[in-house]
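> tool_call: predict_assembly(chains=two)
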Amino acid sequence: MNQKTKKLFIFLTILSTIYYLRPNTSFAQTFDSASYHIDFGNFNMTSGKKSSTNYTLTDTVGQNAPGRYDTAGYVIKAGFQYLYESGIPLSFEISDTDLNFGSLTPNIGSTVTNTLTISTPTGHGYDILAIANHPLKYLNSTIPDTKCDSGSCSESVSGVWTNNSTFGFGFNANGNGTSSYFTNSTYFRQFADNSSGETAKILMSEPTRVKDHSALITYKINISPIQSAGTYENSINFIAVPKY
Amino acid sequence: MKILLILLPFLNIKTHMPNFNLTLSPAQIEFVLKPGVTIIQAYDVINDSGSSITLNTQVLPWIPNGTNGSVNYNQAINNPNIEFSLNNSNIQLGQPFTLAANSKQQLVLKIKTNSNIPLSDNYYTFFVFQNQNTTNTHNGSTSQANGKIGSHILLTVSDTENPKVTSEIQSFSISPKIKDVFFNSITFKGKIKNNSDFFFKTNGKITINKNDKIIKELELNPDNVLNHHSRDISCANQTSCQINPPLWPGHYKVIINLDSSLNAKPYETSFYVWPISPILLIVLVAGIIFGIRKFKPKTKN
């Protein structure tokens, strides 16, 4: 081996050593949003939620020190599968928020409907309450809240309303959790009126965990022949809270 | 035009209805805090509807209403020693924000207590609600429905990790007291009262004994009993606490026991099971036989 070849051999050896000792890229996971940047220290081989007809499996493979660790005052749940253990969260749906009665005709009741649907987590029932900002109103004119056929229903008590000569605005709820408040679909009640200082009233309630329980809400207006013409409006708040 | 009208029911055209569909998690948080402590809680709000929505946030105090877990917001007083705020950089408590269709927003609630806060419980709800839209786009009369969803906050302010609680079994009843061996279930109803300043969970069980032998044990649901209030008992995996027939005739002893940390005396009562339906059946059969024998025409020898 001549001097030139020797030098070339040494040069190539040093070059390949440098190449193999170069810093490697580590494949960790990062998450970015407009406000935060989160670095994850490990990257799992596999994780997630798998399900079949009869079983649901949540798993993490590759997590450092997975498991549940208990001590006085603290519980540590290490492992991404714990993200899935909460089960059904609290969710609330109103199927249609735009309740259009169209043109109102005296002595003929106008009705529109929508559906309330609720799910609650383990250990919690729910209450759904309702309150209107004010009675249906157009300029200085209002459509009064119904008093039902007996003349005695209120925001707390429902009554039968089938008579076309009974005027006003009211609602019925028919479905899960409504039987304590409405005997059947002919029973109506007033909405609590916030402008009069009334408080939201329960229209749907169940004591235990539920999944996709729903009730059909029927809103009814029947105006008298002397009711001023106009486009009457109000807004109704539906409030869903879990049982504590 | 006619063809279009005929085909309309068969075309898969979805009419868009504005709706409210929110998920809020967690549904409830419970903390024991020392005075002066600040805590942070993250909530996930998911807009499950197909359209974006303008939301707002609010924290309201409440008091228990009745004995079944309902709440009352109208007579509750705000504790001036607790401050709530959102730690999000772009969203503030009480300020509207927009959540896109089928998207999630994390809201980070900061709960700060003053060092001079009295040692007691405080109950609040963190609300996420739809900003009221009062614009009527129709020619007719309209009502605008708005949704509001809340997550309860149960805060115990105490110098110790496990504040001492005292409780009592306020009432406990069995229905019916005298029962047939076969028909109908036996239902247990009761109330547990919290005599302390701090909430606790109804950990305990109902034990049904016959001849000093345990027939059945019903675990109580760990429901919260709030300070100086009562709560109806409920049983795990049952809509109401009950045992189903058949049961052997005799005297049954029922004991309701709460966890020893709740410092409540056990409550004991009893009920009887009688063989009413078998006796009635025997009487009926005997009556029929007697009737047949008595009214059967005698044969002449």
